[in-house]
Amino acid sequence: MLTATPLDGMPEITPGLDLGETISTALARWPVPERARPGDILVIAHKIVSKAEGRTRRLSDVTASARAIELAAGVRDPRLVQVALEESRAVIRAVPGVIVCETHHGFICANAGVDQSNVPGEDTVLMLPLDPDASARRIRARLRELTGVAPGIVITDSFGRAWRTGQVDVALGLAGVAALDDWRGRSDKDGRQLRATVIAVADLLAASADLARRKDAAQPVVLVRGADEYVTEPDGPGVSQLLRARAQDLFR
């Protein structure tokens, strides 16, 4: 059985805060049988990681370029668009008020993941972590040090999708969690060989956790149990396996 349980009692995250220790403290408040154990996965909203790592900008310190003003189209704050441009290696598509970017990490997403939701202050925007995989590894190592248990770590954000309406949480960074479960070459229940089935395990974990917490609740960490088979002792290669190769991307 798969369960996803939000951790309550997380404080407002400030730059330099030890996230591993903060999460460990929140886990310690639970009854003993519910505390972290081998095979657990912690799904963490990237915003608390970005806040702890100081990945914020004050719009009052940003000067919008002519390109940012053009792309803002009178719909968005051009300074926010400027930050998105600085966080991008390329602009893939632009419509009034929204730009779809390729970030320096290789993610394809709206506004390079730059936004203001759940960020205190009207003048502040939040950016994605510089290296979400490295962030996940640091949190995992710290939890291993503090609790003796190294849960799998998935760092997430909400992305739109090219084929469908609405946003879904996806994995940005991984440590100790398999990104994919490749079923190619196996058989379905009727014995037919599977030729294209590769399950995006980390994204499914991200989406499952997002269902368990409310968007307006201070629950940025969700404990997922029942997915032990996808937890690995090594930290693993991270999220790169989930990024579609440019030659296979029909939308670019």
What is Rg?
19 Å
- Report the sheet-strand fraction: 15-25%
- The CATH superfamily of the largest domain is known as CofE-like
The CATH topology label of the largest domain is 60s Ribosomal Protein L30, Chain: A
The overall average pLDDT, rounded, is 92
CATH C-level class of the largest domain is Alpha Beta
Strands ordered across the widest β-sheet: 1-12-2-8-9
Biggest sheet details: 5 strands, mixed
In the CATH classification, which architecture of the largest domain applies? 2-Layer Sandwich
Overall geometry: globular
Number of strands: 12
Please, how many helices?
6
Structural class: alpha+beta
User: Unreliable segments (pLDDT under 50, ≥5 consecutive)?
Assistant: none
SSE pattern: EHEHEHHEEEEHEEEEHE
Helix fraction by DSSP (H/I, runs of at least 4): 10-25%
Number of domains: 2
What's the N-to-C terminus distance? 39 Å
